[in-house]
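This section describes the prediction task in plain terms. A model, or a person checking by hand, is given the sequence of a single protein chain and must write out its three-dimensional structure as a string of tokens. No templates, partner chains or ligands are provided. The sample shown here is typical of the held-out split.
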Amino acid sequence: MRAARVNQDLCIGCGLCCGLCTAVFRMDDDGKAEAYQAAAEENQGAVQDAIDSCPVSAIVWDE
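The expected answer:
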């Protein structure tokens, strides 16, 4: 399993990542996205789509 990380300082709360992969991303109480669990093998592609689609490049793989 791989973990993604959302930079809270960059996140604008658009929710795109949550729409692409609810198994990994959710909105927190401040209206920012967070990666609340690691990406399983079957949803790593959706996480990569979220990384590639983030309008402010706030999501990265936490390696």
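For orientation: Strands lie at 4-6, 25-27, 33-35, 59-61.
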